[in-house]
Amino acid sequence: MLNRDYVNGLIHNDDAFTFLRCDRSSPAFWELKKKEVMAMIRQLGCPTLFLTLSAAETKWSELIVILTQVLENKVITLEEAENMSYEKKCDLIRNDPVTCVRYFEHRLKCLWEILSAPCGPFQGYELVDK
Q: Measuring CA to CA, which of 33, 39, 99, 130 is 20 to 30 A from 51?
């Protein structure tokens, strides 16, 4: 860092910026994601509908029931899962991320089936890419 030419080279070549590409909160990460979306638009055309989805594990009582059964070998009801403390839910989620991801994928598949159903909300229109 004491070499001024080295620092100027980092700034000029954006190397000081791009090493943070893996950090989700960095401008470099979002710059990379923006480029990926622009490439998709070039290849597929302008989207008419764009969805961004995220998991809400602590709100999904069915997932909490599954995690309790898998991790603690204990069967609970949906009502017990709803009344469970937030901290306990977070512990369950943190201890089995694979089950959480698989459950999220399951919910995405169900959503896709609804969206692409012949009598679904886009009836008469073809969904090209997901």
A: 99
33 and 63 housed in the same domain: no
CA distance 14 to 9: 8
What is each CA distance from 111 to 66, 75, 121, in whole angstroms? 20, 27, 11
Place of tokens 């089950």: 99
| Residue 78 and residue 109 in one domain | yes
**Short-list 95, 93, 27, CA closest to 59:** 93
Q: With respect to residue 103, please indicate whether it lies within any of the assigned structural domains.
A: yes
Question: Is 85's pLDDT higher than 70?
Answer: yes
Chain centre to alpha carbon of residue 126? 25
What per-residue confidence (pLDDT) applies to 15? 59
Q: Which domain holds residue 21?
A: 4-44
User: Residue 124 has which token pair?
Assistant: 């008469």
Please indicate, yes or no, if residue 123 is contained in any of the structural domains: no
pTM tops 0.70: no
* Total domain count, the chain: 2
